[in-house]
Amino acid sequence: MPFLEKAHRRSRKPFQLPQVPPRSKGGVVCDVCVNQCEIPEGAKGYCGLRRNQAGKLSGPSEGGGRLRWYHDPLPTNCVADWVCPAGTGAGFPRFASRSGPEYGFKNLAVFYHGCSFDCLFCQNWTHREGLEGGGEVSPTQLAEAVDPYTRCICYFGGDPTPQLPHALQTSIVALKKAQASRTILRICWETNGSMNPSLLDRMLDLSLESGGCVKFDLKAWNDNLHRALCGVSNRRTLENFERASRSISKRPDPPLLVASTLLVPGYIDEEEIRQISRWIASLHRDIPYALLAFYPQFCFDDLPVTSRTFAFRCKEVAEEEGLRRVRIGNMHVLS
Ligand code: SF4
Ligand code: SF4
């Protein structure tokens, strides 16, 4: 533990992030994610976004989010593109504009700064650079980026979790606009799954009605390994995934719930993939599962990329455990 704590401290210090979730008796409590920070006056929560200002919780919220956004032509390089309406036409004509890939349309990609985890292998670590200073984007401003050719919004980051109230409000405004003009607009999420379950329920409702999906990144099965790599327990993530799986039957196609795991060399091994796959299959054998290639980044910039042999072996393992929809993502990265 001392060795691991040192590694996480070193990863957070350059960004002035708290070393551990604050536990200040009498501090302001934030209940947005698993960390349940108790923030002392003048300090910030583990994500670096929410603060205790004069005894009140402040930070990006329904009013303004800390984020970058851009349009991506469809079909795009999305964790779920191999099963979703944009990549395949699943759910046509209610949820997709074409019976195949949605060429000619676009995705609104919303990259939230900040995260509730501290993954040493983070593949998008630049999200930490946008935590301080600069302007904030209101839900109404962000919803204005949805034009007549936008068919989906994908909230990712960092992680959308610490700023979920902002993302939920944006989705409500954007969906109202899309419904008024009778256009398809799917609401999708890419997340570590650490949010308060009541927020997850609202995410699921929005995705269900719009034809979108919730993509959970299941980073490790063993909780000790998860804490070592990500600084936080995986308990809430697994509970939330199981909770989300109960809604699958409400709309089996296009899939509501999608899982992924990054194949970090030397850490996420065959046994990890076997355990995760066995568990997903016990919930529903048709949950799509994407195995993602690792690229050396951030604190793990001295590791090799995932090998092709290992990725294909993991795919076999996941299928042996009963999963029917397994895919290797980022094939071009594999060595
Ligand atoms: S969102 Fe999570 S990490 Fe951020 S302050 Fe709230 S409980 Fe802490
Ligand atoms: S955001 Fe949703 S609909 Fe769009 S490409 Fe990704 S998974 Fe598909």
Give the helices and strands, then pairings.
Elements: H1 2-12, E1 28-29, E2 38-39, E3 51-53, E4 56-58, E5 67-73, H2 85-88, E6 106-112, H3 139-143, E7 150-157, H4 164-180, E8 186-191, H5 197-210, E9 214-217, H6 223-230, H7 235-245, E10 257-263, H8 270-283, E11 289-293, H9 308-320, E12 326-329
Q: Could you please describe the fold and organization of this structure?
A:
There is one protein chain. With 335 residues, this protein is an alpha/beta fold. 29% of the residues lie in helices and 17% in strands. The protein has helices at residues 2-12, 85-88, 139-143, 164-180, 197-210, 223-230, 235-245, 270-283, 308-320; strands at residues 28-29, 38-39, 51-53, 56-58, 67-73, 106-112, 150-157, 186-191, 214-217, 257-263, 289-293, 326-329. The strands form three sheets. An eight-stranded mixed sheet has the order 5-6-7-8-9-10-11-12. A two-stranded antiparallel sheet has the order 1-2. Helix 4 (164-180) packs parallel to helix 5 (197-210) and helix 8 (270-283) runs parallel beside helix 9 (308-320). The radius of gyration is 19 Å and the shape is globular. The model has no long low-confidence stretch (mean pLDDT 96). Bound molecules: iron/sulfur cluster (2 copies). The site of one iron/sulfur cluster has 14 residues, from loops. One iron/sulfur cluster is lined by residues 21, 30, 32-33, 35-37, 45-47, 49-50, 116, 162.
